[in-house]
Every structure is written in structure tokens, then in C-alpha cells.
């Protein structure tokens, strides 16, 4: 019997060639994390207009997780799929639902990490998608209570620098935490940007 990781991989491999079977496999995954990702793959390559409903199903599955980190981080997949397929409003609705959930993640390192993954998903698109996520990530980065916060903040700042250097410089002077300010200033000084990660790719 296949485990959730293997079932997700099977759904991914079938998504482009046999989407109906891929959806059946994805829906049979009981773990919300792997199930959400698998259904998102199917929705990303679904051959007709039903993709919006499939991707909403993926987001709803993530929301069922009793772990708020997973509930926020995993919706990066349906959000990116919706944006790649031109359904910005549906993606925005999921983002608006995810941000209040992010605020319930008690560990601030985990909170900033979940928001960073969501930032990766939305950054290639319009600022109305990524600016609310960035603002929430900045809030989750201060005050620094975990080593993951400066790390995630640095990754985020490099992404934003590559997207909008002027905005990055403007925001840097507003950072109150000294540790984060130094991180931000170094990114601005070096001009070392970063690229958002891919979420979907064609299977060979």
C-alpha cells in the first residue's frame, strides 16, 4: 500500500496524462498536507474550467488541518495554481482566509516560515496578491524570538529586492528590530536578490 508521499507522487505523474485518475488518487490521500498538494497538481493541469473548484477543494482540505502552520503553508500550492491559470480573485480569497490563520501560529519562527512559502507562491504576480503576505511576514518577524525569523526574513527581503528594489529600500528604514534592520540593509547594500520557487513542473 502506498504512503501519502508516494500517493502524492502518483497523482503528480498522472495529472497531465490521466487527470481523472489523478484526481481519484489525490482525493484518497487522508493527510491534509499531501492531499492538498496532490489535488493542487491535478487542478493546475485540469483540462477544463472545473479547475477552479478542484483548487478550492485543495485549499479547503488544507484548512481542515488541525495544525495552523500546515493550514497556511500548504495553501501556497492552490494559490499558485490559481494564479498560473489566471484566477486571481479565487486566489485572493484564499489568501485573505490564510492570513488570520497565520496569526494563530504560536511559534513565530513557524509563522514566518509559513508566510514565506505563501510569499513564494504569490510574488511573481501583482502586488495586491503579495503585499498583504509580505506585510504579515514582517509582523511575524518582530520581535526576534527564533533563529528562523531572521533567516526567513532574509529570504523574503532578497525576493522583494529582486521584484522591487525601490520598495525594499523604503521598507528597510521602517524595520525597528536592530537584527532585522541589519539583515535588510545587507540585502540592499549587496543587491543580492532571489527568485520565487517553482511549485509545478511538467512531468517527464
Name the descriptors.
204 residues, mainly alpha, 2 domains
Description:
The structure is a single chain. The chain has 12 helices and no strands. The longest helix has 16 residues, at 148-163. It is elongated. Helix 1 runs parallel beside helix 3 and helix 8 (108-122) runs parallel beside helix 10 (148-163). The chain is mainly α. The protein has helices spanning 4-14, 19-27, 32-45, 51-63, 68-73, 76-84, 88-102, 108-122, 127-141, 148-163, 165-172, 178-190. 46% of the residues are buried. It has 2 domains: 1-104; 107-196.
Distance between the termini: 24 Å
> Number of domains in the coordinates?
2
Low-confidence stretches: none
Q: How much helical structure, as a percent, in the residues?
A: over 70%
Shape: elongated
Q: Strand fraction band? A: under 5%
Helix-strand string: HHHHHHHHHHHH
What's the quick description here?
With 204 residues, the protein is mostly helical. It is built from twelve helices and no strands.
Topology:
Elements: H1 4-14, H2 19-27, H3 32-45, H4 51-63, H5 68-73, H6 76-84, H7 88-102, H8 108-122, H9 127-141, H10 148-163, H11 165-172, H12 178-190
Helix pairs in contact: 1-2, 1-3, 2-3, 3-4, 3-6, 4-6, 6-7, 6-8, 7-9, 8-9, 8-10, 9-10, 10-11, 10-12, 11-12
